[in-house]
Every structure is written in structure tokens, then in C-alpha cells.
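Notebook entry, structure prediction.
Reason for the run: the old model in the group folder had no record of what sequence produced it. Starting over properly, with the input documented here first.
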Amino acid sequence: MSQHHCGTDNVHALLNLALLTGNVGERGTGVNPLRGQNNVQGAGDVGALPNVLPGYRSVGDAEARDAVTDVWGFRPPAEPGLTEVEMTHAFGDSIRGAFVFGENPAVTEPNADRVRERFDQLDCLVVLDLFETETAEYADVILPGSAWAEKAGTVTNTDRQVMRMRPNTDPPGDARLDLEVLCELGERLTDDGVRFDYDGPEAVFEELTEVLPQYAGMSYDGIGTGSQRWPFPADAEEGIGVLHAEQFESGRRTADLRAVEHVDPVDPVADDELVLTTGRVLQHFNSGALTRRSETLVRMRGEDVLQIHPDDAERRDIADGDRVRVESERGSVTIEADLTPAVRRGTVFATFHYADPLINRLTGDTLDPVAKIPEYKHSAVTVEIRRE
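New structure, fully documented this time:
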């Protein structure tokens, strides 16, 4: 829903629907963003967005910046930073060096050929990861990352429940925990007085309860083997289970509807073209860096194929299993056709798990004007037969 040029408007339309139907303020109601990872909510909570501080307080809020200054040892800037996609657009220009931590943007970013050209223009690239990904091929320095089974800390799910992770093993050889690497990097890149002397994830979480109002009453021990849900006020015995039961965040009992206008896709679709939408399959995650590198996994039909409706295929003289060329204004890839009524007429689907075929060569990098999310889900493409 969000991966469109009008993605923010799509979400507002859903919120309007929830308000109009009274689906707020009760258990099991509201709008549920079905997350792709186990800690997307937690990353947003703690401020891993370029325009907010921990607790979703705007970086332009002077009182919010005051609240974190004493804890952090510096006053954060009032201007928002850049999203990941915006950063790649600036590689080689205003950004001369980059640190990529557990990501594979050479495969997952839209308009992938442009992204790879930008990586070549960096003066220095450091990659911290478990595997030598396609992004690591551009790196000047590669640091071994920690696996999930080697790390402790917390994750927060979409139901606002904070849970603890516990390590099952230690990093091998001379490999270091991600937290240790990030702390040393922080010490080397910042001025005196800025704290990076955490002795473990519990110390990090204690700091979060100081700078994140929704976590104020939580504790590492309190979470234990269960969970604690935010908002958890400092003087409360437990977190609040249902939001907006009496009033909204604004303090009012009503919320404004947001008028939403239709926004055309950036890529206009001609009569002989199809709409490409991309996504995942169950067996893999994002670029497949963790899953497709296992020798025990075999590529299964339906993973790196182009799903196309039989009617669309018939009009193009495409048979099931044919190799076809898919082309947009940004590039082309060759991929096996999978005829299936599971996709609607006029639309084709492929995953972005593989560097070959690299489907994100075809996707656009025009951004939503508010959330800065690229339009992954709507690219005009031409599909031609290419039998081999």
C-alpha cells in the first residue's frame, strides 16, 4: 500500500475508512501494517527515521530536542536527514562515504542500475554483513556482522509489545558483536562528551526508557521472558492495551478525515504495456542474502519467474516456461514466464530476491512526497517473447 508515489494518501484512505466505520478504540480494530520484519515497529519507535526523534517526536520540536540533549551529550539538528533511497541518490555528490549495515541496496533499491553507478562514485564504502552481498562487491572495507542467534536486545512488534532476544552462541573467531562495532565507530566519528560507552544491550535499553516517553515505565528485567506493551508510563504498573479508547493523541475525542485525491502513477501505461509489481515469496527475505546462499535451498518454481495471466500471455504468444524479455524505460531483464490466473489481467509479478534476474532494474525511484517511499509497485513494462 505504501510503495506507490501516492503511498501516504493510500494509508490516509485506510485511516478514513477506519474512522468512518468506527473501527478505533477497541481491541482488534484499527489499521494493522503487516510488517516485513520483526522489528520495523521498534526501529521506528527508537527514532530510526530521518525526521523524528525517539517516540515519533519531530526533529523540529525544540522541547523534544531538549529532552534528549542531556542524555545523549549533544543537541540533535532540527533539520530532517535523508531516507536510504535519498542517500543513494546523493552518493558521489553531497555524500562521499557510506556505511551499509545489514542491507543489500545494490539489489533491493529501485532503479538498480542507477544505484550501482552511484556506489561506484563513493570515495569510501564500508559494509557490515554476514555475507559478501552484491553491495559488498563495491566495498573498500567489509566487516563481519552478527547473526540473530549471537545477539541480545529487544524487538517490538506491531502490537506494540517489546520482547527480549537472547543469544544462543558467540560470534566465531575474531568476529565482534554489531553493538561493539557500532560503539567503536561512534567513538571514532564523534566529539568528546558523546556517549558510546554502553557495556551491553541492557544499557542501551535503559537509555531508551529515558529518551522514549512510550517506554518510560519499562525495564529489561520487567520484560523477562514475556513482553511489555507501550505506552508504558513511568508511574504505571503495566502498558496500555488499547489506544484511542477515550481520546486521540491530539487530546480530542474526534479525528479529522483527510481528503484524498487520485494521483496518477509516475509511469503511464500504454495499451500494449503491462504493470509490473514486485514482492516476496515465503522461502526468501528481501535480497535473499540470508536464504538463497544456503546450499540446502533449491530454487522453486514461482520464485524467480514472471507471473503473467494466461490471457495476457496468449495475446503475446507466450507459453508457460518461455524465456521472456521484460523491459521498462530503465532497463530490461530476461526471466521465465509462469502463466497463472493468480495475477490479474494487465499486471505481472516478479520477486526482487535475486541479483539475476535483477528485477529492480525496472522499478522507478520517484518518491512519495511525504514518506519518501519509492514507487516499487507500479512500473510500466513491455513483455516480449524470447525463446531459448
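Summary: The mean pLDDT is 91.
The old model has been moved to the deprecated folder.
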